[in-house]
Every structure is written in structure tokens, then in C-alpha cells.
Amino acid sequence: MRWQKYILPLTVLLVLLLFVAYPTLSVLFKSFTHEGQLGLDNYTAVLAKPHLLGTIWGSLLVAGGVAILSTLLGLIIALTVFKTTLPLRRLFGVAAVLPMIIPGFVSTLAYIFLFGRNGLITYQLLNLTWDVYSWRSVLIIQTLDFTAIAFLLISAVLISVGSQIEDAARNLGASEWEVLKTVTLPLIRPGLIGALLLTFLRSMADFGTPLILGGSFNTLASASYTQLIGTYNIEMASTLNAILLVFSVGAFWFYSRAQAIGAGVRVQLESGKRKVLNLRRPVKGIMWTICVLFSIGIFMLLISVFLAAFTKHIGADFTLTLEHFQILPQRGWNSTINTLFFATTTSVIVGLLGIIVAYLVTRMEFRGRRILDLLATLPFAIPGTFMGVGYALAFSRAPLVLSGTWAILIAVTVIRVLPLGLRSGVSVLTQQDRSIEDASANLGASRITTFFHVVMPLARPALLVSALYAFVATVQTLGAIIFLINPSTKVLAVDVFEAIVKGSIGEAAALSMVMLLLSTLGVLAIYTISRREVTQTWIRRILTGRTAN
Amino acid sequence: MDSEDSNRQDSKLVDLELQHLYKRFGNLEVISDLSLTVYKGELCCLLGPSGCGKTTALKIIDGLLEPDKGTVRLAGQDITRMPPQQRNLGMVFQNYALFPHMNVYDNVAYGLRRRRWTEAKIKAKVVEALHLVRLSDYEERRIHELSGGQQQRIALARSLVIEPKLLLLDEPLSNLDARLRADMRDEIRHIQRTLNITTIYVTHDQEEAMSIADRIAVMNCGLVEQIGPPREIYEQPATQFVADFIGRINFLHGRIVKGSLLLLGKRFPILSKEWPEGTEVICAIRPERLRIQQASSSLVHAIVQDATYFGAVVRYHVVLKSGDSEGTELNVEASYPWAAYELGEQVGIGLRFEDLHLFRYSDEPDSD
To answer: What is the CATH number of the domain that holds A179?
Structure first.
């Protein structure tokens, strides 16, 4: 009886060691190996080459810029949506979260339509010739994309600030601006810091945008792709990814610290009572203008993808056509089915595994519990390209050969989305009154019976939402699987990416439409299943990978 | 019900005046017609069941809400549309609303900083305020390190430090445990008297209101049913609602027959002309004003159904046995020295006419 209770934790631990620790260590090991010799040769090579050093600096600067800009934008939009009565504010909220369902490289594509060499705006409208392919474009697109994360994180904290505390400041004589400055902003600081660090993390890890838009500008993530696919230099790819990992894990560590400190400053929840800040007109005017500009940008991106998909040649020939969708019955159909299969399988596994690991972490006492938690959480901070290289290295040789199979794709995606499933599971279980489970045990149910008959049903809404989130994330995932794909396991994201690289803009746009449709269905399902407010909380938890409170 | 008060307070200065306030949220009428006069230096309790509009009234006084109709006057000045920032009123919120990201000192100093005081003056004032609430050594503490009672006192200090024209307290003791509640109540009373500050105190706890208030305004359905000192509220309830809400009371049905009140088969002569022949009357009587004795022919007969021992008093639950009022249940409280009655024992219940409060039957559509 005693040894039996270790079966489940041990199995999960082994799975995580195999699919998290083993590939990670493989990359690190590879980065310290040069032509079969252990040593620091790869790192000294990076330091010796100015353009690679420049890549590190470039990555950091762009990521820093993206973090600051998207956090500022996210804050302004959140304040406008939740703390004013300005017109169109709901639309701003929609615009802010839209990038969640637009895969990063699809907005990249749209951006090229608008601002590229033949761009609708730069060439057709303004007749400018500027080089669209530079770090500036990367900064702009990533900022537009990641503002969604900042917006969601900040709003979640903002709506939990009770009106009473702001009223207390008003009662003590604070003007509206002072209420914002001395009470509201300091109280949402954990959210602001979280937004800064997470957008930094995401920008560092994003490889599609710099690859397509960067031109000669490289980031660590995009350079590692070029090293592996372009020159088959897996050692250098590993090294660049290892450097990237240091920054990512560093940002994640700061993020966890910030969350922990923020937990000390508890904001009392006062549901349903939120009061607007009656800021002065010029201030509101500026906020509103920024929101309008941002929303125009987002909707323009979205519309231009539609235009590209349904017209002959965007920028040159605006005749409506379905010609680009001819790819669907050929290659596209297969990829769509593959994507559906891939995303569905992943989301089911993430949902179940998430709640199981959460149960182990919150309810069972055993040695190595913290290691289990760490192993399941860490992939949140590990960049996609790092994981991709890791899986390519680890599972192309004995003892376990998985390359070219669905298993490897599903494994890497499950592992990458698992932290979100785990966090949502943990927060349900820590909030749930344990005495319910004790009662079940008291009535004679075994642990397993209790798990399936009490824990699972109560956690179902959260489980469903995290599964659906996993679905949307899987449809869009690219960085982690780009090195692992083979012709029989093609998915839409890879097709779109290849079409963009190949220059088949219309095809890429048409396939993006299908991706958008799948993502939208997933998101709509999330919204219908759980109430809006609840969903917002989950999305925040899922996004932040936040430990239970 | 008119709430304008008797002549007794005329010598005092009017501080706060609410005139015919009206407020609705959507279709929900929260305050229907609220008028209230509060005098300088007094502690006035707004007492009523939840949903009666007392917190809304407090927010209107503070300026956090604007009434749809009516005016708020402070020392004669109309402040109905004045924003809360300019009113200079001290408010203690139900959950204290302390700023969790600041320490005790910064919380208390907050209002003074908004008034652009110099740091030296702020320091002196904060020290004084913390001394007043007996938390002098707590300046550097974080809010989450404080107990509920300490948070309460910091909230009080924060609202008093700005030398407010009024002190507004919104259920200030509801988050404390019973023992602490009594201590804090005395402390608030003490500080209020020391500073002689006009105070509006919102509560749903009648015992709290009775023990702390100079006057109590009993609210129901968005208006004041009665206002007066605790004793008056208890001993001369103006409406059936007030009689029922304050303390325990028994309601009996009586009727006016030939110039007398017919109640429990007995006649009580009525001199007043306000009760015409045939009127149905609700007669209310406090349990401690009923007498319980050995059964005798001059008394109403009853059976003891339940007895609860409280030390100083015993409360009997009895069922009447005689005549047309058979089956009526009453609470009777007997104080020391009492004779003990057994369950099921037949007893006699006695009452005096002057202990009855009479209400017209049709007055209260929602009577029980």
C-alpha cells in the first residue's frame, strides 16, 4: 500500500525529466561541445564575432523597447476601457486582445502589405521608399502583438482595485489625477512589472517576426534558426539558444519575485464595484487618441490580411477572387486536418495533465514535489526555438527516437503549454475547500475515486478553459515545431510561414484565414463556456503562469 | 413619516441638514424621501436593516454619490454638488480602505499631503493622531502586519488627522470580533467626545447604536421612520417597524369597543379621541413589561412552552389559553427574583395599559 502512492508522482516525474530536463540538458551540453570536444569554444566564438555580439545587444534593446512600449500602451488602453466612460472604449478592448488570435507572423505579413516596398500605405499612398526590413519594423509589430498580454495583465489587476480605496483618497482631498498617481497606479504595480517582464520574455523568444521583418537585423532566436536551417550548425544554434535561455529564465525569475512581493500588497476584491476616474479633458483626450491610433493599426493589419486573401494581388490588382484558396483542396486541406488533430490532441492532454500535476503539487506530500513543480513550470520561460533544438537533439538518437513522428510534435507542444494548464489547475485546487475532499475520503472513497468524482468535476470549468487556450496556442505555435516537422506532419502555421518565406503572399493570406478561423472558434468557445469575468481571470492566470493565491 | 425633530434641540447649532433626498439606481429606489438634521457635536446613528439606504445616505453626505433630488447642507452651506475632495469630511470605510502599498505613517499623512502641508507639520500632526488612537509606535508598520482592530484605529486616525468638519463611519465595527467590537465602540465614543466632532455612524446593529448614539435615526425603505435618543426610540417607538426593529417585542391584536380597548378578553378604558369605535389596533408590548405569575382568575391564562435562562433574566415562551386569543404566542422576560416555572405549567400573564404601544392596524401593510 505504501509504495503504491508513489506510482503516480514517479511516473509524472519521469515524464517531465524525459521531456523537459533531457532536451534542455542536451542543448546546454551541445553548446559546450565543439567538434566532439568539451569546452567553451562556442561561447568564445560568439564573443569573438562582432555581428553575433551585436545580435545579443539587438535582441535585448528591441525586447526592452517592446516591453516598455507595449506596457505603456496596455496601461493606457486598460485605463481607458475600465476607468473612463469615453466613447468606443469597448472597441479598444477588442482591438487590444485581437492579436491573441492573430498569429504573430500573420500580422507580420499584413504589415508588409501595408508598409513594404509595394506597401499600400508607404508606396501606393505616400510613394515612400523606405526599407521596411529593419529592427524598427520588428519593434512596431511586436509592440502591437504583445500589447494584448500587457493589456490583459494590467486590466486584471486594475479591475480588482476596489472603489472604496479610491474613494478614501478622494475623501482625503486627492484630485482625480492624484488618485490615479498615488493610489491606483501603485496598486497595479505588480501588474505593470509583470507586463514588462512577460512582454520582454515574449519578444526575446519570438523568432518569426525578426526573421521575416528584420532584414539584416537578427535576434538570438532568429539567428539560431538561420544557424540551424541555413548552415546546419547545430552547435552554434545551441549556443545562441543557451544565451537566450539565460535572459529568458532571468526575466522569469524576476517576474516570479515581483509576483511574490506583489502578493504582500493585497488588494481587496470588491466585485462589481468599479468607479471611473474623472480625469481632466486634455488627459482623457490624449489617452483616447492613443487608443484610436492603436485600434486603427490593429484593424488595418486584420483587414489587409483579408484583402490579401480575397484579391488578386494586394497592392496591384484588387479584383476579388478566391484563387488563393485553391491551395486548400491541394495542400491546405491536409494541413488543416493535421492542425485540427494536432491542436485537439494537445489540448486534451494539457487539460488532463495540468490537473493531475496540479493535484500532485497541491495535495500530496512527497519528496521532489518542488522539483516536479519547477520542471512543469520552467518551460514557460524556455524559448520555443530552444525547445525545438532540444527535441531535435534529444529524440533523434537512442534511447528514444521520435523524430518525424506526431509524438514529438505533441510532446513539445504539450510541455510548452503545460505551465498554463498547471497554474490554472493549482489555482482551482488551492481555492477549493479541502474539506470537500476530506469528506469524500471520510465517506470511504479512495484517493483515485475522490480525484475522479470530486476533484475533476469541480475543476472542470478551469480545465476546459485551459484546454481551449492550449488549442489556440497550438494552432499558432511555430518556433518549437519548425525544426521537428516533416512532410507528413505539416501544419497550417508551418505552411503559412513557408509561403511567406517563398513570397506567395496570397496563399499565405488564404491559409492564415483558416488559422484565424480555427483560433477564433477556440476563443469564442472559451467565452461561451465560462462567464466573461471568470474567463478574464483564467486568461490572466494562464498568461502569467501565476502561482496560486 | 415626518422626521423633523422636537423643540428640545433648538438651543443647539444645526451642523448637517439633509432635505428630501431622493436617489435611485436604475429601477431600484434606494432613498425615497430622506430628511435629517444633525446638531453640532452629536453622534447620530443611522440604523436600519440592510438595504434601507443608510450607506447610500452616507455616500451622499460624503459626496461620493450625488442625490437625484434634495439638498445636503453643511453649516448652512449647500454642498450637494460639491466634489468629495473639497468637502473636508472624514470617512471611515467599512473595510477601512487603507492603502496597502503604504505604511501606517504614509496612510495617515495622505490627506495632509493632498493639502500641501510641509513635512514637518505633517509629522507633528500624524504623531498626534497616532497618539490619539494609541498606536504611537506603529508608524513604519505595513498595513498587512496590523490586526483588524489596529487597522480600524489607523483608519480612524487617517480620517481625523485632516480635522474634518464631520466624521462619517460606515459600519466601522462589522469586521471585528465581538470582544474587540465593544472596546472599539467605547474608544470611538471617547475620541468623538474628546474632539467634540459631529459624527454620523451607520450601523445595522441596534445594540451598537443604542450604546454609542446621542440620537438614533431609524431608517427603513429609504426614509427615516423615527429619530430620537436611544431611550425614546426604545420606549416610545413611533411606528410598528421601529417597535419591531429595536429590541424584542410582542404584537397583539386588539379592538376599540365602546370607548375601551378590548385586548385578551380584558377592557382598558381609552381617553383619547384618536381611536374611533371599531378600530382594529396592533398592541405592542416589550417582554420585560409583561408579568408572569401563578395562574389566577384576574390574569390571562397561558402554558409555558419554553424557558431560556440568561442569568439576569429568564425568557419564557408562552401560549395563551383563554378565550378568543387562544393560541397567541408571547415572549415574557422575568428578572430576578423570579419563581421558576416548569415547561407545560399553567401560568398567568399580566399587563398594564401604560406599557402598551398602539398602532393602527392598517398603518402597516407589511405587519407580521
So the answer is: 1.10.3720.10
CA closest to A190 among chain B residues: B101
Q: Which residues of chain A have a CB within 8 Å of the CB of B93?
A: 164, 167-168
Q: What is the pTM of this model?
A: 0.79
The whole-angstrom separation of Cα B350 and Cα B15 is 46
pLDDT band at B236 (very low <50, low <70, confident <90, very high): very high
Range of the domain at B24: 7-245
Closest CA to B165 of B105, B77, B244: B77
Domain membership flag for residue A296: yes
CA angle A252, A258, A259 (to 5 degrees): 90
Query: Structural domain tally of chain B?
Result: 2
* Spatial separation of the C-alpha atoms in residues A391 and A388, rounded to whole Å: 5
**Which cell numbers hold the place of B327?**
393560541
Instruction: State the average pLDDT for chain B.
Output: 86
First to last CA, chain A: 33
Question: Tell me, what's the pLDDT at B358?
Answer: 86
Give B149-203 pLDDT, tens digit per residue.
899 999 999 999 999 999 999 998 888 888 888 889 999 999 999 999 999 999 9
CA-to-CA distance for B95 and A167, rounded, in angstroms?
A: 12
Specify the number of domains making up chain A.
1
Residue type at A499 in one-letter notation? A
Nearest by CB to A266, from B85, B89, B144: name it: B144
The residues, any chain, with a CB within 8 Å of residue A446's CB and separated by 6 or more, are none
- Per-residue cell: A538: 483564467
ipTM reported for the complex, 2 dp: 0.72
Please tell me whether residues B238 and B268 are part of one structural domain: no
